[in-house]
Structure formats: C-alpha cells, structure tokens
Amino acid sequence: MSLTISPAPVRKEITVTASQARAFETFTRQIGTWWIKGHSISASGQAEVVIEPRIGGAWYEIGTSGERCDWGRVLAWEPPARLVLTWQINASWAYDPNLITEVEVQFTALDAARTKVTLEHRGFASYGENAAALREQYDSDMGWAGLLRAFADSAL
C-alpha cells in the first residue's frame, strides 16, 4: 500500500555553476541579493531578506521603511549540504505563527564547480481549503521555479 500526500509537495531542481559550499552560502547568507524584490510581504517593499544561520534562527524580510516581516524559522542548518525552513506565510500573504509548511533545500556537489540544488516545499494541507491553489502558485514560474532561476543567475 502506498501513501499519497495531498496536495503533493512542490519539488524543483536546478544545477548551478558553483561549489557546494558557495551555493549554500549564496542561498542562505546572500539570499537578499537574489530573492525577487516583488516577492515581498512588507507594506513598504523588500529591502533585505535574512536567514539567521542556526537552528531556531529566524527567516524574515526587512522592508524599505525598516520594518521586519517574519517568514519562518530555521529547522535544520547543515552547511554546506542541507537547510530546512518553516514557511509561515498564509493565503493572504501575511506571516501566521500558527501556520507551518516546510521548505527543504539540499545542495549536492556534482563536481568541484557544479552543484545540484533540490528544493521541496511540503505541508500544503496546512492551508486547508486554499491548499490546492497555493500549491499551484508555488509550483508556477512565478513561484519556486522563478526564485531558483534568480538564485542560479546571481553572482555565484
């Protein structure tokens, strides 16, 4: 008997021209340099995105007016191979401390200069009646696919 998770996680994969360590560093500590500015929940617009480099650390954006908007927390911090974050943005595009979905990012060295980056966003059932629509948005070109392209196009 196989178990079907509904809705299924969003899975995306991209190969970047960077070492595993450099890819992890760019994804985490330099996220504000490549995260699409329009993907913001701040009223004033995104100035910076931060992932605090530790288990329990915060994941948030800072708006151009200086306000902080939480996005989630760090569940796993395993440089340079793996990162797991909570994504706590609800269907109204606002932080919700009671909503938890997970974003896992794995960095697999293909050789000294190339890394496969695999992203899985899971737990869409937490969105209730909005689960299918939100999964579709995150799976779209404007969702994780576009963000991973922006990451790959950044100065790795």
Short description:
This protein is α+β, with helices and mostly antiparallel strands and 156 residues long. Helix content is 21%, strand content 36%.
Number of helices: 4
Strand order of the largest sheet: 1-7-6-5-4-3-2
Instruction: Using the alpha-carbon principal axes, give the shape.
Output: globular
What structural class do you assign from the helix and strand content?
Answer: alpha+beta
**Main sheet properties:** 7 strands, antiparallel
Contiguous runs where pLDDT drops below 50 for at least 5 residues: none
Radius of gyration: 15 Å
Strand percent estimate: 35-45%
Q: What is the ordering of alpha helices and beta strands?
A: EHHEEEEEEHH
Oligomer: single chain
Q: What percent of the residues sit in helical stretches (DSSP H or I)?
A: 10-25%
How is this structure best described in words?
21% of the residues are buried. By secondary structure, the protein is α+β, with helices and mostly antiparallel strands. The chain contains four helices and seven strands, in the order βααββββββαα. Strands 1-7-6-5-4-3-2 form a seven-stranded antiparallel beta sheet. The protein is globular, with a radius of gyration of 15 Å. The longest helix is centred in the last third of the chain and has 10 residues. Strand 4 and strand 5 form a beta hairpin.
